[in-house]
Amino acid sequence: MFGDMMGMMSKIKEAKIKVDATKERLNSVLIDEASNDNKLKITLTANRAIKSIDIDDSLLEDKEQLEDYLILTLNKAIDKATKINEAELAAAAKDGMPNIPGMDMFK
């Protein structure tokens, strides 16, 4: 019984190490998103840290339009990054988790 428990604890520790390594790796995964007309381009990491924003000069003339562009484009980029982040972390956690009956939340 204790051998099984120690084995499970070891597997859980391995899973945490894999998840932490995946989180670190996701800092270097870049997601590029642009407005439909390419007047605004945003790059962020899969951990949702903004790396760059490129704004066409024509957007600088209208504050409300720029705000709309930023909201729409940032939301699209964050949505993409979140999907990648969640899929990668779930895969890392699933690979390292022991097979515990009733604990199939990562499957």
From TrEMBL:
Compartments reported by the entry: Cytoplasm, Nucleoid
Keywords from the UniProt entry: Cytoplasm, DNA-binding
Pfam name, any one: YbaB_DNA_bd
InterPro entries in the cross-refs: YbaB-like_sf, YbaB/EbfC
Similarity remark: Belongs to the YbaB/EbfC family.
Physiological role: Binds to DNA and alters its conformation. May be involved in regulation of gene expression, nucleoid organization and DNA protection.
HAMAP family: DNA_YbaB_EbfC (MF_00274)
Assembly behavior: Homodimer.
Protein name according to UniProt: Nucleoid-associated protein ACFFU1_08430
